[in-house]
Amino acid sequence: MKLPKIPCRALGYFFALCLSLPCFAAVEDPNSVGFLVGEAWPSGQIGTGVDGAVAPGIFYDYAASDVFSLYTSVTKSNHNDGLLKLVSTDIGFHANLIYYDKLTPFAEFGMGLYFVNKQVGIASETASKTLFGLNLGLGADLDLSNRFFAGMMLSIHQVFSGSTTLPVNGRTELSGRWAGFFLRGGVRF
Length: 189
Description:
This protein is mainly beta. The chain contains one helix and eight strands, in the order αββββββββ. Strands 1-2-3-4-5-6-7-8 form an eight-stranded antiparallel beta barrel. The chain is elongated, with a radius of gyration of 22 Å. The model is unreliable at about 15-25 (pLDDT under 50).
């Protein structure tokens, strides 16, 4: 018995259709996107001589299961009229700790790139450096409906040290950490 020849293109379309079927299925573990707004307090070398400031941001969670998801977030803060400008980009793991009615406490752990611009020295030179760091977050979300949620989060970021050489002030170290308390809200899709 001879099997019929199936063109490669038709076989490719069949496999593409099979692989895309989960995209059309009902989503049990919804992804989410939303906004953050809160206060950021720098400390260590980058926090010398600066106060806390409002730090807006955005986040995205890609749900892998009911418990775990991958997240990414970007926050920006401007301290003391430009004395310190800090942009944090993070990626990591988000874990829902327990489901209690419509309240979901969670923990986050990740790493990121931190873009630091700080005015240093008597000559007010700007030391700019992109640094690597780690972050840890704890918070809770409250489901407002099947799609919308609101919550709060405490986030701590450890920025590893790096140095830059400035024309007048010479070698300048940039390191430290910042902590932030955020209100967050978003939509699941």
